[in-house]
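Catalogue entry: protein

Sequence with per-residue C-alpha cells
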Amino acid sequence: MICYEPVMVAMPLAKHISEFIMRKRRLPGREEIAGIMELLNLERKHSERDLCFYRGHFVVALCFSREKHLIIDVISSTGELSDALEVIAYRDEQLDSYIIEILPANELEFEGNIGIEPVIIDSETFELESTPVLGYFEEGEEGITFIIDRETYDRWKESERLDICPICGSDDLVWSGEVAYCPSCGFGIMIEGRKDEQAN
C-alpha cells in the first residue's frame, strides 16, 4: 500500500472505518483510529484531548474525535491544500444510519463524489445501504493502481455505474476485462488478487 497523496490515505481510511462500524457497531475511538492510521503508515505525533496529529512521509492528518462523530483532515506534507480531503464519519439520527463521506477541500479538483457514493450503514442491521467504491493504492510496473476487493466490484457492477471513476468522479473509465484506466486522473483500477488468479 502506498500513501503519496491525500486521496491514497482517505479512501482506505474510509474503508477501514466502515468495516470497523459494521464489525463493532459503533464509531472507532481515538486509540482505534491510531491503529488504523498505523496501517496506513501514519504515526501519531501529538495528542491533546479530542485532537490527534498524524504524520507520514508524504501526508499528514488531523483527527478530531467525539462520541458521535469523527473528522479527519488529510493534507499533503508540503502544505499544499489543493488536494486536501476531509473524511467525516457520524451517526445520522434522521436516517438512522452511520454515514462516512470523503469531502474535497477544493471541489474543482474532483468532478463527483470520491468513492462514487458516501458509505451508508444501517444502524440497526449494520448492513451496507449504499454502493461506495473504496480500496487502496499500489505501485507496480504499470504505474499506480487502485485496488478493490471482489465484493466491492460486484456491487459497483450491479449499480450500472462502471463508467464513473471512484477516484476523481469523471465518467470516462476505459475497461479491458476487469481492469480499468481513468484518462482523467491517470490511475488504473484492478480487482484484488486478480494477478494471482491469472498466474494460476
Notes: The two ends are 23 Å apart (CA to CA). The chain has two domains: 6-122, 136-199.
